[in-house]
Request: fold
Amino acid sequence: LLALALVIPVLTLTGLKLHGDVARSGHYSQALRAAQIARARVLRYQLDEETGIRGYSATLDPLYLEPYRKGTVAMDGAFSELRTDLVRLALSTELDNIVDREQRDNTLWVTTIATPLTVITTRTSTMLELHRRGKQLVDHFRNDDQRLIVALNNAGSAADARSAQTIFSTLMYVLVSLLAITAGAGVFGFLLE
Reply:
């Protein structure tokens, strides 16, 4: 009976710990998904910016600048959301430099490439040169985006490993609980005889 009295609190504490682990795992997975969506949103706005500039450069019709304008307006908020999500994941220290470079490259692209292209009203060799320089900045941006994808995927893999460990621990908890109950019932039955 003394052994059973010791087993019950241990099993209760273990169960509470596992419950907390499962809850933390779920919250982390949600935060990771939010960060992946925020990263994709930053890329989408960058693509919108680029699409608008290419459309305008091809046609010189200001109508094609609409995606550029929308992307440019939304970009700061998207970067802010991404940074917030990385903080929630405790990945901000590791990934801040990558996000900083992305934001710097995007700002540089907007100010030194896109903005000058929006005021050109006739095709010139300057347009081609601006597009060439802009491609380098966009390539840097996309390389950093790939680094973010890898880092977030690695964080997801680590979270999956923790979840697998939690599942294993839960199964072990159930098994030990069943064994303790069975042993307790056997001891109690033996004592009653």
